[in-house]
Design brief:
By secondary structure, this protein is an alpha/beta fold. The protein has six helices and five strands; from the N terminus they run H-E-H-E-E-E-H-H-E-H-H. Strand 2 and strand 3 form a beta hairpin.
Length: 138
């Protein structure tokens, strides 16, 4: 899994918000790809580790759904999973991180559809930020 991750240029991760975080299988996957001398390195004893995935343009697109609308000012308190995913990707050297938050999926079919439609309106903007041609050419 780690080698497959290293070979990619664009990563799309989709997960629901679970208990203010993300599902455990995603954490297991992250534990498999954060590996010394593959995605991170420890330059010298006592120095902080460094990411190795800054060797070419890479972008993570993180798609997350949640039942409620989480206001931006409370997001750091209530959405620890989003911050963790972004931090660990940047730690490995992937500097471009785009998020598509599908908030307010609610409890009814109507709320779910409205949340999806609202998120669809943001997709083109995210795609424009992911320069796939740059990633493919290098």
């Amino acid at each position: 899994m780690c080698n497959q991750f290293i070979e990619a240029d664009v990563y799309v991760i989709a997960a629901p918000m679970w208990s203010l975080s993300f599902p455990a299988p995603l954490k297991e996957y992250i534990d498999c790809i954060v590996q010394a001398d593959k995605t991170i390195t420890f330059p010298k004893k006592g120095e902080k580790p460094e990411g190795l995935l800054n060797d070419k343009p890479r972008t993570v697109v993180y798609i997350q759904s949640s039942g409620e609308n989480i206001p931006w000012m409370t997001r750091p308190m209530f959405n620890k999973g989003l911050d963790y995913i972004e931090d660990i990707m940047k730690f490995m050297g992937i500097s471009k991180f785009e998020r598509l938050l599908v908030d307010s999926t609610g409890t009814t079919e109507q709320e779910r559809k409205e949340a999806i439609e609202s998120a669809k309106e943001k997709i083109d903007t995210i795609i424009e930020k992911v320069d796939i041609r740059e990633a493919v050419l290098t």
